[in-house]
Amino acid sequence: MAEREIAFVTGAAQGIGLATARRLAQDGFRVVAMDRAADRVGPAVAALQAEGLDVVAAVVDVCDRASVLAALNAQPRVDVMVCAAGIYNDAKLLDLTEDAFRQMLDVNVVGTFIPAQEAARRMQAGGRIVTISSRGALGGTRFAHYVASKAAVIGLTRAMAMELRPSRIAVNSVAPGFTDTPMTRSAPAEMFAAWEQLEPAGKAASPAEIANAIAFFAAPSTSFVTGQTLFVDGGKSLGGLSI
Fold first, then answer.
1. What are the sequence ranges of the domains in the chain?
2. Where are any strands of DSSP class E within 92-220?
3. Four-way CATH pick for 6-178+208-232: 3.40.50.720, 3.40.50.620, 3.10.580.10, 3.90.180.10
4. Range 32-70 burial, b when 16+ CB lie within 10 A, else e
5. What's the number of CA atoms in the CB half-sphere (13 Å) around residue 80?
6. Would you please indicate which residues are annotated as catalytic (active-site) residues?
7. 134-184 residue pLDDT tens
8. What is d(CA 124, CA 147) in angstroms, rounded to the nearest whole number?
């Protein structure tokens, strides 16, 4: 029997990260669910284990290299790294502070770079790295710092794919549109409902729908695809209002 591949997922305590951990475990991976929120990742993983899935929890701060290393070194191999950890907050351009801008870049960009880099150092040929960008990378109002961070993730993905190409390590990005997660649900209910009405389908995507796209890039059979960004947004990126 072939050895089970091991996939690491950051930001796995909730939302897209949690849905991805479930989907990859259902696909036959041993999954290491990484998140800095110990009070959330433990119960989330316990629920997945109760479903009979091979998932373990690791309390990790993606901006702390030592924390990332501890999780990676605790496993015998690294086949897949999904960088799903990220933050979002709303602010008008003229109200943005340097601290808020730097924090967004630190978590969303540096917090993608460190796990991806350390995973790549441990991967054999055929390894796969999946980053999470956003449709927001195309632009929008009231979140210039978020737009900048997610555009940077797309650029970082392409650069990593080019540099890791000789090692046959694939690097791709999934760019979700408006998705029903605890992060988006933190907005007032009337704002969430208004955002949904701007979507082509009249509703937000589910985390599971985004996880389906991530699973595509994580599968061994798609390791020939690299340097790509897949928008999963119901077609909204084709034109229209953005959020």
1. 6-178+208-232
2. 128-132, 170-176
3. 3.40.50.720
4. bbbbbeeebbeebbeebeeeebebbbbbbbbbeeebbbe
5. 33
6. 146
7. 999 999 999 999 999 999 999 999 999 999 999 999 999 999 999 999 989
8. 33
Q: Is 241 exposed, middle or buried (CB count within 10 Å of its CB: 0-12, 13-18, 19+)? A: exposed
Neighbour-count burial for 82-97, b at 16+ CB within 10 Å, e otherwise: bbbbbebeebeeeebe
Summarize pLDDT for 2-36 with one digit per residue, the tens. Answer: 689 999 999 999 999 999 999 999 999 999 999 99
pTM of the full structure:
0.96
Q: Is the dihedral of CA 12, 14, 130, 145 positive or negative?
A: negative
Widest CA span in the chain: 59
Question: How many residues in the chain?
Answer: 243
For tokens 């091979």, name the residue: 54
Q: Is the pLDDT of residue 243 over 90?
A: no
Q: Is pLDDT above 90 for 240?
A: no
